[in-house]
Specification:
about 250 residues; mainly alpha; MetI-like fold
């Protein structure tokens, strides 16, 4: 136990060292350039506190997270639902593949523009674009999770007529969860980027719109502040959602 504690401490130490190196490099880059080009760490944190005090940070963060979570939920539900059928039936997988490949091959900005034509500016187009671009990620991972189940095991289950309940919870569900977790972890980070990109062009509020305004007024420290906040947000989600969920699924599969 003492050895594991020492190893964990060493890992944390190097992780913190990596953060300090990034901050030092950032500061050197700020010194070597103009404040309108690269904001220093100090001015960036000052902008964060100023936005927090004015309420701008909280208001835009809540709006963006609401859009992200709604679009993410729709994309995950539809993608997983279709992925289950695609994983179980190869004919359905072949039928779904052209549409999935078309969405993945099309630049995201095109869907944003189309959504703006269909829905105008606002939450609807942001949610639509987010759900649409998350759906293929969940489909592919869910389908591959089911398809990765050992065919010999499935054949044995069929021969011995294993009850449907056992087959579902002991074979298919663990296979699905393996692909689901891989797709979900990627989808959460991707959905945040997609939501902000859609807001940048087609919304009148939210983080994306705040970034657009900051760029227009050359408020570089605000741009860096939002970028830093988004990195921190992903780290918080990973610590509070992914890690506990992975531990729970690991215990459930044992």
């Amino acid at each position: 136990m003492t050895t594991s504690i020492i190893q964990e401490f060493n890992q944390r130490r190097y992780y913190i060292l990596g953060i300090l190196i990034i901050l030092a490099g950032w500061q050197v880059l700020a010194w070597a350039s103009h404040p309108l080009i690269v904001a220093s760490p100090v001015s960036t944190f000052q902008s964060i506190f100023a936005m927090l005090a004015s309420g701008e940070l909280t208001k835009n963060l809540i709006i963006t997270l609401q859009r992200q979570l709604t679009g993410l939920s729709l994309g995950v539900l539809v993608g997983t639902f279709l992925g289950i059928f695609g994983g179980l039936k190869k004919s359905l997988d072949s039928m779904f593949q052209p549409g999935i490949n078309a969405i993945l091959a099309t630049p995201s900005i095109i869907f944003v523009v189309i959504a703006m034509v269909w829905f105008g500016q606002g939450s609807t187009q942001v949610i639509f674009v987010t759900a649409l671009l998350i759906m293929p990620i969940m489909y592919l991972n869910s389908a591959k999770g089911i398809q990765s189940i050992d065919s010999d095991l499935l054949q044995m289950v069929k021969v011995y007529r294993v009850p449907r309940r056992i087959k579902l919870f002991k074979i298919y569900l663990p296979g699905l969860l393996y692909g689901f977790m891989a797709g979900f972890s990627l989808s959460v980070a991707s959905s945040l980027r997609i939501t902000i990109m859609a807001e940048l062009l087609g919304a009148q509020n939210g983080i994306g719109n705040a970034i657009f305004i900051a760029r227009g007024y050359l408020e570089t420290s605000k741009l860096f502040a939002w970028a830093l906040l988004l990195v921190l947000l992903v780290m918080i989600i990973e610590a509070l959602v992914f890690n506990p969920l992975q531990r729970f699924i690991g215990k459930w599969q044992e």
